[in-house]
Description:
This protein is an alpha+beta fold and about 120 residues long. Helices cover about 35% and strands about 20% of the residues. A four-stranded antiparallel beta sheet has the order 1-3-2-6. A two-stranded antiparallel ribbon has the order 4-5. Strand 4 and strand 5 (about 65) form a beta hairpin. Helix 1 packs across helix 4 (about 100-110) and helix 3 (about 80-95) packs across helix 4.
Amino acid sequence: MTTFKNKTYLLGEFINLVKDKQERAAYYAPSYNYALYAVEAEVTSDLEVYVGNPVEVKDYDEEIFPEYVVEHAMWYFCSDENIQDVVDLAVSRSKNVTVEQLISALDYYLEHDDFMDVC
């Protein structure tokens, strides 16, 4: 069930869903694909993010954003694959990783396109 989509969250709240794998199916299901969008640029636990469908790319590279994103002047923050990879790797390295550490790891990844060591 994809009831997590088309909603806004605080980034810290959504990171917990990702950490607990509540925003994905056990097996690949396209309906679970998503992207995160935000208005603010500062990556903090209280950053409000919208979880919606990924950007759709049409002919001539025309990008179609979800209606909510356009109405609220949001920008693309990250993909489901980005946040899942960062969180899953950090959790596999340290079961006691905090939400703040996961947010720092995500911020680092988005800035450097590389994973940060989380201990």
